[in-house]
Amino acid sequence: MNVLLVDDDYFVVTALESKIDWQALSIEQIYTAYNVSQAKEILQQHAVDILICDIEMPQGSGLELLAWIREERYRVQAIFLTNYADFNYAQKAIELQSFDYFLKPIEFDKLALIIRKAANKASEERSIEEAAREGLLWKKNQNRLLELFWRKLITGKSFPSEPRAIQRVMEEQHLPYQLSDRFTPLIIKVFPHDGSLGKNDKDLFDYALLNVLNELLRSPLYKVETVLEYTENHWIVILQWSAEPSTGQIENTCASLIPKANRFLKCDVYCHLGLTESLAAVHPMIRQLIHFNEETINIRNQVFRIDQRPVGEAAYIPPDLELLERLLSDGDASAFSAETSRYLHELTGRQTLNVSALRQFRLDLMQMIYSFLKQREIQAHKLYSGSTNDQLFQQSLQSIEDMEQYIAYLVDTALAYRTFAEKPNSVVEEIKLYISKHIGEDLTRNSLAETVYLNPDYLARLFKKETGVPLGNYIIETRIQMAKHWLATSQMPVHMIAGKVGYANDSYFSRLFKQECGLTPYEFRHKQQKDRLG
């Protein structure tokens, strides 16, 4: 496998040569060029599989080079580097069948993954060409049939249960299995939402995960039949045994996946092992494993076996709610989190914590915290609206750690806002600042209360107590003062000034202005001009 690096910047080419482990990517030869003309000469003289090329260059663009490559019918996987996030560039690159489009500055770890994908694609295309020449394309079709068979078996709730029906399916599709073949399913759950590559580039993250799995799941005792993401971030692996099944070996392999995922994928992970079954019985085992995984609350970075973790049938026993209410009232967030964590881990140890119990626990704590806020006139449903709350809420049933994170968010937010709300001067100043910045908008007691997450009646009482002025009167006074400023310092028409201070009806504005100032807006402006002239 050979690569050609093309960039008019010598230092970029040098950095690419030195900072990427080409040997690990199975790249044998690295060619370099500093303009399109040099790149064409190399392509005419040498076999190049991958092109890594800048787009903007003085003597011809990378897009022009790729257009020439396509015209000459060279089979090259092109990766573009550019400083510009230009849609037209990206569109043209897609039209020319480029492999990827990468913005500078270069993230070498990420680029290495893209190069590996390009190398795999180049190798796959080469294999397809060889297979076509040798008349072996039937093998590719066989692989597709195998993939479809396992996808249907894993994701389909209806699958032949009678051995004769399964045998008939295998015979019709010429599948290389016997009913007595032994298979072990395992589920791998990854958590890519905590700052890993999977948060921003799931395709690349999935590719990296599959590479890690392919390296780990190698053994003369078994082979990997399929690796399938059956729901987001939940992967199922099917292993076929060629020797006596060894669950202990698979357990050890899964255990070794955890530090690799932590280190290389920068994410947490857990594994669920199913039981080894014959092909005739593997479908119900997979359904059981998926159901078990959905109903069981797990701890991250652990390996679990379905035969060692029966779901407890005990009724939900709530935590010490009185203690938690007292800790919340005292503002002791760390003690609150410690108590809830102790409770969750205790239930896990007794194997009585399932999704139903955890959902009830979450509801109890949310009700407690919402009640705590309501007593202080804080509108919890407004305080906790937003994408952060929604994401943490959705994730909270995935693991003990996710629930702990959600509880910490609820408590920290509640206590921080209680501190703010208990300082009336801070709340009033916040409202005054908001009014001054949004003077032209529809300002009501309800809309202002939403900005500080307080009950509207409570906010009105608080504002009058702190300022001596009713909230509605303060809004009018502020609008009139702003109108005075524009009347005195600008030639803006009165109807425009009325709109800028929140009054769509300029007649109403004029009556209100005269009521407050004793003069109409026109009379006020005239008086200001006369006073300036002396």
TrEMBL record:
Q: InterPro entries in the record, alphabetically?
A: CheY-like_superfamily, Homeodomain-like_sf, HTH_AraC, Sig_transdc_resp-reg_receiver, Tscrpt_reg_AraC-type_HTH
Residues making up the signal peptide according to the UniProt record: none
A GO molecular function annotation here is: DNA binding
Q: Identify the keywords attached in UniProt to this record, alphabetized.
A: DNA-binding, Phosphoprotein, Transcription, Transcription regulation
Occurrences of domain HTH araC/xylS-type (ranges): 429-527
Please list the residue ranges annotated as the Response regulatory domain.
2-119
Q: Which SUPFAM superfamilies match?
A: CheY-like, Homeodomain-like
Membrane-spanning segments:
none
4-aspartylphosphate modification, residue list: 54
Q: SMART domains per the record?
A: HTH_ARAC, REC
List the protein's name: DNA-binding response regulator
